[in-house]
Amino acid sequence: MTDVIIPVDTGLGVTPPVITEHQVSHAHEEHGPSGILKWLTSTDHKVIGMSYMITSIVVFYIAGLMALVLRLQLASPSGSLVSFQQYNELFTMHGSLMLYLFAGPFAFGGLANYVVPLQVGAPDMAFPRLNALSYWLYLTGSITMMMGFMVAGGAASFGWVAYAPLSSATNSPGAGGDVFIMSLVLTGFSAIFTGVNLVATIFYLRAPGMTMFRMPIFTWNMLVTGILILIAFPVLTSALIMLFCDRHFGTHIFSVQGGGSPILWQNLFWFFGHPEVYILALPFFGIVTEVLPVFSRKPVFGYKGMVFATMAIAALSTGVWAHHMFTTGLVLLPFFSLLSLLIAVPTGIKFFNWIGTMWRGQLRFTSPMLFSIGFLFAFLMGGVTGVMLAAPPIDFFVHDTYFVVAHFHQVLFGTAVFAGFAGLYYWYPKMFGRMLNDKLGKWHFWLMFIGFWVTFIPQYQVGLKGMPRRVASYPAGLGWQIYNQISTIGSFIIAISFAILLWNLWISWRRPVLAGDNPWDAHTLEWFTTSPPPHHNYTHLPPIRSERPTWDYNHPEAPAILGHGDSHRLKQKVGAP
Amino acid sequence: MLQRFGAAVRGRSRGPLILLVLAPVVLAGCSLPSFGAYRGSTTQGQDAFKLWQGFFVTGLIIGGFVMALILWAVFRYRRRSEDIPRQSQYHRLVEILYTVVPLIIVSGLFAFTVITENEVTATPAGPVQVDVTAFQWGWQFYYPETGKLVEGETTQAPQMVVPAGETVNIHLKSVDVIHGFYIPQFNYSQYAQPGTVNKFNINVLHTGVYRGQCTQLCGLYHSVMLFSVRAVTPDQFAAWVHEVSGNSASIGQLKAQIKAGGPGA
After folding, report:
1. Using an 8 Å Cβ cutoff, are B213 and B182 in contact?
2. What pLDDT digit, counting tens, does each position of B141-151 carry?
3. Would the CB atoms of A345 and B99 count as touching at under 8 Å?
4. Is the distance from CB of B69 to CB of B61 less than 8 angstroms?
5. Which of residues 256-275 of A touch B (CB under 8 A)?
6. From A320's CA, which of A44, A519, B142, B188 has a CA 20 to 30 Å away?
7. What does the pLDDT look like over A513-565, one tens digit per residue?
8. B142: part of which helix (H) or strand (E)?
């Protein structure tokens, strides 16, 4: 930061530089090596961010293919596509890849890595080399996880939660479990380093004028996510090391026989696991909060309420872990029930802010906007069923059934996939200087939207009828088959939609349509620089007087922001040249 | 404290009160649909079911309201011109409303959760006790008063016999990994864990056979770790429980059989 001088542009009326095709293809080659060597050695947050995104999307497609195998197996009561053992390995890996190696790294390693320094007007992350280390640990961890299929005895088959004592050396012998543990230790450190980097960057590298309350909501959410990572991931990493000691060094931390406590694993795991849910959700809430205002041509409604709601969610998320353990009989039910129910309040505030943002706007239904609205519907249903699960008497009878499977897929698919791909469609023009085809984007969206409901609504019903999760077969004659078959059809509709995304990426690479710097007439700082941005992001910056510096710069004629409790900024805007 | 609060509200007034607060639009509680769940074949299951109805109706109202707002915004405010709309950002009254109203709703939901929770987890002593022991991959049902023992694993799912209309105390544990004791029609499940005994009651309302299954992933044959519960009249139960047990294989022998023969799949 210190050796890069960013001249602050004070004059209005100067149009931002228009990008040329020459710049599109050469923007990344201004400094340092090019080609493969650039990707291997770069400490540029943009290159690392893109590496993260590419790797995590590859992981997403692999884990998605596993889901198709799982769904095919369940299309008939005694499916014989895979054996029981293979089925257990496949759902363990599907969950592990999606949760540990796709959703999180795609958000905080990929999008946040790329976007946050741009949004705060910084030339790079605070610790570029640590950032590179994060990525290489993540890549190594991902490869390690998938190598589980190649070891004797197969991959880990104890579920992504690895409950003790099923994950002990006696009950899960073989190297598959060890490979799983080592992979998560590697990616755990990777996440911690990224958390450190995000927090330091946001606190210390903001451009002149970028006060905390002028930061875009995406950056706010990544700050809170970074703090949550620092709270949650060290707990997981140390619990995994304890588990490894139990498996190999004769300790008895989680085994009853040696005086240990199996429930301790669940407490440690979910103390990580529930904040993790919000580590996976907050970045995606941030994406939606970027997209909705831009395509409504309005500021975020209730900006400060949104920030405090995010903080409230993060604070509550550290006190709700045992709602995953209601049926253990070993937790204080009312406490965890109350805190879990309370999360509905700040989440509701977010919903009303998103609706308020669209209210009386001029809505443009581009691909990112459609994916964001799809997120609203998916997350609404996932949220309502989540409130039901917060009541222990209801949780007792749907815990570990397909009802819960449907619930968390609606939440996680809603956030990581709907909002995640809203982010991809939204920032792709900034990253590559070229557009994704909007018509194909809409096909992708509508097929995915339909497939999503067809897949998960029947799972709620079959769960209420008593179908447990993680079963490779189920009794015939209970009426479960039809729900499973509908769900399987839905999963293939989703698969087709992701084939369309691949096609869209392919044609944007083969037949580029240039995007320009700011194709969406967006609000935040990253749209002020070129697409893709130069090596250190900015040659000059606009004055930063609100959370929408690029909008202020491009729309000096726009009416001032209206609303209570913000009169100081109103005056400032009126007084601005 | 919470239990005392629950006890204070408990009683005859409870049912109507739930509906009054949770579902003001629906007047007749009994005619509410089941919303996909079982109505509950035990008294505990029925209590849980009523809470489910309350939550579902509340969710339907709130979710429907929010969805209507989203749909209205999406259809009403599609782009009609190139004009920049009013740049409104804050509206203090609306912001206070959508913070305070959800807090009140959540408090109501929590109150009824606690009441129901105290009912379904209450464990007054009953005439029959069953010690349920889960193992990879089967169940053992032991009746300590009479020494009656029923066991079975994947290929011969065991059946637990209980008297209908009476309180049955279940003592649940596991000898190896964590299992889930789940009877869908009872609207209840608990973990069977090594080193811990979970105690709960079931009061089955009517005679009949109810299927049960392990819900917590417990290894290779988790999918086929089935059992069932047969509720009979108290007289039939007394006769059954004094029969000489036909099944005397120990869990160790059953596990050896599984390892040797690989039943299940």
Report:
1. yes
2. 999 988 899 99
3. yes
4. no
5. 256, 261-263
6. B188
7. 999 999 999 999 999 999 999 999 999 999 999 999 999 999 988 887 776 44
8. strand B138-143
- CB-based contact A566 B89, cutoff 8 Å: yes
CA B35 to chain centre: 15
List B130's β-bridge partners, or say none: B170
Alpha carbons B195 and A545: distance in angstroms, whole number? 62
B51, B77, B217 ranked by CB distance to A391: nearest: B51
- pLDDT at residue A5 is higher than 90: no
Q: CA B109 → CA A395, B34, B47, B104, B188, distances in Å?
A: 14, 19, 15, 9, 20
At B151 the three-state DSSP class reads strand
> What domains can be seen in chain B, in order of their start residue?
2-77+86-120 (no CATH), 128-261 (2.60.40.420)
Cβ-based contacts of B188 with chain A (< 8 Å): 396-397
Please give the residue that has the higher pLDDT: either B26 or A96: A96
Contacts with B, A 272-311, CB within 8 Å: 296-305
Rounded to the nearest angstrom, the minimum Cα separation between A560 and chain B is 6
Q: Quick check: A2 pLDDT over 90?
A: no
Q: Is the pLDDT of residue A3 over 50?
A: no
Percent of chain A with pLDDT over 70: 92
**Side-chain-side CA neighbours of residue A199 (13 Å):** 14
Which pLDDT band holds residue B250 (cuts at 50, 70, 90)?
A: low
Rg from Cα positions in chain B: 25
Beta bridge partners of B139: B134, B152
Contact B102 A345 (CB under 8 A): yes
Count of all residues that appear for chain A in the document: 577
Calpha distance A40→B3 (Å, rounded): 61
CB atoms inside a 10 Å sphere around CB B144: 12
CA-nearest of B226, B186, B203, B166 to B45 is: B186
- Name A218's Cβ contacts closer than 8 Å, sequence gap at least 6: A112, A115, A116, A119, A283, A286, A287, A289, A290, A524
Which residues on chain B are in Cβ contact (under 8 Å) with A355? 66, 69-70, 73
pLDDT, one tens digit per residue, over A14-63 is: 444 444 444 444 444 456 778 888 889 999 999 999 999 999 999 999 99
Structure tokens at A204: 């210390």
Q: Check residue B219 and give left, alpha or beta (phi > 0: left; psi -120 to 50: alpha).
A: left
Q: Are the beta carbons of A165 and B89 separated by less than 8 Å?
A: no
CATH number of the A21-575 domain: 1.20.210.10
* Interchain proximity A344–B102, CB inside 8 Å: yes
Residue A219 to residue A198: CA distance in whole angstroms? 9
- Tell me whether residues B74 and A358 touch, CB distance under 8 A: yes
Say how far apart CA A284 and CA B120 lie, in whole Å.
38
Q: Which residues of chain B are within 8 Å of residue A337 when distances are taken between CB atoms? A: 110, 113-114, 117
Q: Determine the residue among B89, B100, B117, B173 to mutate to test chain A binding: the one whose Cβ has the most chain A Cβ atoms within 10 Å.
A: B89
pLDDT tens figures, B189-231: 999 999 999 999 999 999 999 999 999 999 999 999 999 999 9
3-state secondary structure of B63: helix
Which of B2, B116, B182 is facing A468, going by the closest CB pair? B182
CA A191, CA A199: separation in Å to the nearest integer? 12
Q: Where are the domains of chain A?
A: 21-575
CB contact under 8 A, B120 and A393: yes
- Tell me how far apart the alpha carbons of residues A197 and A223 are, in angstroms, rounded to a whole number: 10
Could you tell me the two tokens for A554? 């491009």
| pLDDT at res. B245 | 61
